[in-house]
UniProtKB/TrEMBL annotation, chain A:
Annotated compartments: Nucleus
Biased composition (Polar residues): 1-39
Species assigned in the record: Portunus trituberculatus
InterPro entries: CBFA_NFYB_domain, Histone-fold, Transcr_DNA_Rep_Reg
Biological processes per GO annotation: chromatin remodeling; DNA-templated DNA replication
Superkingdom of the source species: Eukaryota
Residue span of region Disordered: 1-41
Gene Ontology cellular component list: CHRAC
MF terms (GO), sorted A to Z: protein heterodimerization activity
Name of the protein in its database record: Chromatin accessibility complex protein 1
Keywords carried by this UniProt record: Nucleus
Residue ranges of domain Transcription factor CBF/NF-Y/archaeal histone in the record: 43-91
UniProtKB/TrEMBL annotation, chain B:
Gene Ontology CC: CHRAC; epsilon DNA polymerase complex
Acidic residues bias (residue ranges): 144-153
Protein name (database record): DNA polymerase epsilon subunit 3
GO biological process, one term: DNA damage response
Amino acid sequence: MKWSNHTQISRLETEMASPSKSPTTQSPGKSGRLSSQPSELMLPTQRVKMIMKSCPDVETVPQESLYLITKATELFIQYLTQQAHSQATDTSSLRYDDLATVVHSLDHLEFLRETIPQKITWAEAQKLMEQYDNKFEGFH
Amino acid sequence: MAERPEDLNLPNAVITRIIKDMLPEGVAVAKEARSAIARAASVFVLFATSSANNLAQKHKKKTVSAQDTFLALKEMEFDKFIEPLQESLEVYKRSQQNKKEQKEAKAKAKKAEEADKNSGSVEDNSEDGDVSNTMEASLTTDKENDDVMEIAE
């Protein structure tokens, strides 16, 4: 009796000790919800703050805004992952092209089109180059 | 200000964790896919920050408020994030407040302890007041350990 109580306590203590796995958290992927962690952050706020400060004209970053942007970025990573995977033809893996496709098909992901460009094959690239050359024939 | 390129990147381990938690078990995440998501996340921070900052400047403010951040997200068409973010923010603010109160209670108790030592007398009337202070402090810290306490019984 005593021994089982002891193991229960130590299990709870280890669960409480690691912040990202609190007893109240369910794994988002399994339940399909965007985020079920109440307020714990996974991304490091200092790093996010550095990125924010690299923006021109940004002076001080209040604690609340830093928290919100960090949390929003976590939600964004989840969102992008979910969207890319949902329209993938091979759902056993997540590939670069899945990301590129979803970024080029959803309007509000337009800001990512230069960051995640669609890849073309070498043959397609050659064809494009030929067309480009033909266009400017005579102007060399 | 010169920043090293890696400083503007978010840690790969955390990003991988978030991605994996979002997908069913056994889905292989290509390295290129993961680095694309990582870059996208950094760009998201920049985009959200500059949008929120523009809104703040429009209202002649110097700092980016929570309000500006929510409005920026709406502008970026990430409305679906707003509600979960508001909830998380509430929980975060409460936990920050709790931490602050605990800190203050501890400081108060410590101060009372020291005052006790200075007074030198063990049979002071003030001792009762001190005991209740220390009890308050231990009560607030015990709250967190409620679950553990129940099992111990």
